[in-house]
Amino acid sequence: MFQTKLIVTGDDFGYCPRRNQGIVECFLAGAVSNVSLLVNGSAAADAAKLARRYNIPIGLHANVSEGSPVCEVLKTNSSLLNEAGFFHGKMGFRAALSKGLLNMSEVKQELKAQVDLFHELTGHLPPHMDGHQHIHVLPEVRHVFAEVLEEYGIEYTRVPIEPGLHNCDWIEPSLMDFYVGVEEDSLNTVDVFTKHGIRWPDIYIGLSTMGKNMSVSAIRNAIDTAIVEFTSKGPAQPEPQHRTVTIELMVHPGYPSVPPIGGCGEGPDDFSQSWERLHELQTLIKPELQSYYKTRNIQLCSFKDL
């Protein structure tokens, strides 16, 4: 008999006031149960206040790929910055890393500065910490990321390996290539995180249900597929009769950013300005989704409840 605990994490909290508003609405509607804060986001301080006001469980969305660093020393003359003085971007970071151009001690320095700023903004350390644009599972980065989590005693992270991803034929090829790369990096990260005593939910979902691809049926199918795959593997050793399966569903709800407001130092990106954010918000609060959770005895919770 399996009980299911589902963490629905609203990513990019702090990106802009309209993102914050959408995520808070989702939380109050019972559609999001956890949030991930971008401390270099233009509305990060406001997001931290909202989390306090509404008692929203909050973790850190570590960001070394978009916008500006929070570490003063790294704001000039750092390997993490491009010629314009901003982080290299989602693909630019990966390209610079593959060419050996990034200094890992600077990555570690920035990650620690972000944990410290999170603590300053919220009054506590993050119970969980993951990477914006999945940078935390990249080669080399995964090691310093794990060291930072262990140093601060941050127990939980995200490992984006999504069951059934390869069967999602609605995902456009260029995006699927990126997702497959993320999956490969994640598989190579498992041993590193395990060695450092870091934990993560049994199941991750969120690549196949992102933006325009999100629907009630897509979320339902992703959860059902993942649970079947997970439970069919069978436990490695005899377990108690009642076993809890933990799932994290990564989501990006919000109202579209309106430039120049938003972003992490260089204005909001295209995805943030698109209708897809609002589409996620509207899908997540649909009563059919809530009733599906009830029917399947799926309990929404946060990392603190694991």
Automatic annotation (TrEMBL):
Q: Name one GO biological process term.
A: carbohydrate metabolic process
Q: Which UniProt keywords apply?
A: Carbohydrate metabolism, Hydrolase, Magnesium, Metal-binding
Q: Out of the domains of life, which is the source?
A: Eukaryota
Q: Which Pfam families match?
A: YdjC
Would I find Hydrolase among this entry's keywords? yes
Q: Which terms in the Gene Ontology molecular function aspect does this entry carry?
A: deacetylase activity; hydrolase activity; metal ion binding
* Its biological purpose: Probably catalyzes the deacetylation of acetylated carbohydrates an important step in the degradation of oligosaccharides.
Protein's name in the database? Carbohydrate deacetylase
